[in-house]
């Protein structure tokens, strides 16, 4: 068995978990201002003079406010001129002030009042009439606004994605720190593997490790699967206990100031059989082919096709048939763990420098096992750069 797998006690692993010292800088106030101006340029290009951004990752992107959506409307109304307007419950004003990173005009509403009427009132005051709505906002908000607006509400996806898809150097640095943390956690999780260990034990350790390193809130998610359960892309319920000769799939990540990591490693505990080794090697080749295809201007769907071509040449698939690749090759990542751009058939979006995405063309062999190798990359002026180095071999998960 590789020296990277097993042989490490829990105490030895914990001794390597000290708070991260080389921390990436937070997003600067000036960058938030640049995001607002970029959104306004895109609003003009799309013939929109008002943009409503709901609580969630887009609100955080434009204001720095980490606020989850609820039945109470908290939203940013952006018009072509004037300060952005924060619409929020009056009793939440102090909490929002504590995390705001930009100057805003605030319009508060009390519990018995209609916040949607307030949005439209502010639009009228600013002579704004063409409203685009954050696609991540609840349909109830759309319904509430339609009761007061006499015009159609437009989809703001092109505006918001146009701002968020291409990451700045500061965003890339935060994502790099998150990826570096998770890669270390993955290494330590492989190190403490031993026969009989439960998936639940590894999940707990991985969360503990992320917290010890200084991630925002421990693991944002964690999938640990052994043996036949690795054939299910997002796992199956219940605790499994590790046996020699089984594949181990660990998919986990964390956030640093809201920016995500998301890394999957699949490796063998013991000695692989011929089928396991063949599929693992094909997965590695498909991931490498997808990465080699990446360049500015290439359609997102072409990256997906590059991975599928490797698998189809080996007799897997085609399309989403199994054994083969049952899902898209990759998803964008940033403040949301899944965001544009998506590396999937039918997506003609050209790749641009600064775009970030996963590269994970998983192979599923139904009833037997699955192999997923997932690393993220960002597009450069000439190609792409990995956030984390890919796995070298089935029994050597880390470069």
Quaternary structure of the protein:
single chain
* Broad shape: globular
Terminal CA distance reads: 16 Å
Q: Could you tell me the CATH topology label of the largest domain.
A: Creatine Amidinohydrolase
> What is the number of domains?
2
The helix content, as a percent range, equals 25-40%
Report the total helices.
Answer: 11
CATH homologous superfamily descriptor of the largest domain: Creatinase/methionine aminopeptidase superfamily
Poorly predicted runs are: none
- Overall mean pLDDT: 98
Task: Output the structural class.
Answer: alpha+beta
Strand content: 15-25%
Give the strand tally: 18
Please name the CATH architecture of the largest domain: Alpha-Beta Complex
User: How would you spell out the order of helices and strands?
Assistant: HHEHEEHEHEHEHHHEEEEEHHEEEEEEE
Rg over alpha carbons: 23 Å
- The top-level CATH class of the largest domain is Alpha Beta
Main sheet specs: 6 strands, mixed
Outline of the structure:
This protein is α+β, with helices and mostly antiparallel strands and 399 residues long.
């Amino acid at each position: 068995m590789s020296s990277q797998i097993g042989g490490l006690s829990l105490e030895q692993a914990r001794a390597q978990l000290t708070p991260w010292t080389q921390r990436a800088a937070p997003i600067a106030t000036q960058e938030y201002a640049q995001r607002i101006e970029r959104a306004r340029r895109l609003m003009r290009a799309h013939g929109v003079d008002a943009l409503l951004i709901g609580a969630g990752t887009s609100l955080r992107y434009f204001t720095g406010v980490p606020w989850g959506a609820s039945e109470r409307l908290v939203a940013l109304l952006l018009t072509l001129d004037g300060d952005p307007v924060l619409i929020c419950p009056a009793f939440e004003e102090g909490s929002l002030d504590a995390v705001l990173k930009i100057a805003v005009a605030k319009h508060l509403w009390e519990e018995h009042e209609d916040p949607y009427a307030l949005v439209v009132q502010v639009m009228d005051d600013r002579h704004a009439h063409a409203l685009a709505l954050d696609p991540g906002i609840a349909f109830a908000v759309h319904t509430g606004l339609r009761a007061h607006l006499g015009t159609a509400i437009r989809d703001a996806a092109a505006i918001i994605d146009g701002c968020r898809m291409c990451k700045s150097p500061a965003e890339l640095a935060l994502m790099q720190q998150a990826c570096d943390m998770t890669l270390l956690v993955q290494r330590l999780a492989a190190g403490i593997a031993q026969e009989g260990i439960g998936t639940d034990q590894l999940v707990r350790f991985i969360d503990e490790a992320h917290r010890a390193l200084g991630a925002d809130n421990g693991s944002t998610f964690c999938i640990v699967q052994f043996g036949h359960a690795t054939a299910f892309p997002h796992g199956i319920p219940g605790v499994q206990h590790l046996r020699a000769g089984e594949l181990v799939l660990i998919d986990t990540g964390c956030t640093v100031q809201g920016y995500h990591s998301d890394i999957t490693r699949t490796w063998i505990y013991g000695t692989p059989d011929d089928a396991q080794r063949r599929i693992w090697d094909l997965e590695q080749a498909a991931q490498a082919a997808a990465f080699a295809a990446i360049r500015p201007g290439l359609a997102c769907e072409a990256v997906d096709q590059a991975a599928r071509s490797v698998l189809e040449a080996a007799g897997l698939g085609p399309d989403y048939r199994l054994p083969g690749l049952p899902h898209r090759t990759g998803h964008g990542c940033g403040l949301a763990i899944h965001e544009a751009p998506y590396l999937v058939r039918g997506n003609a979006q050209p790749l641009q420098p600064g775009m970030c995405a996963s590269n994970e063309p998983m192979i599923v062999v139904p009833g037997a096992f699955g192999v997923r190798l997932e690393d993220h990359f960002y597009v450069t002026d000439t190609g792409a750069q990995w956030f984390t180095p890919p796995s070298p071999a089935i029994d050597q998960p880390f470069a």
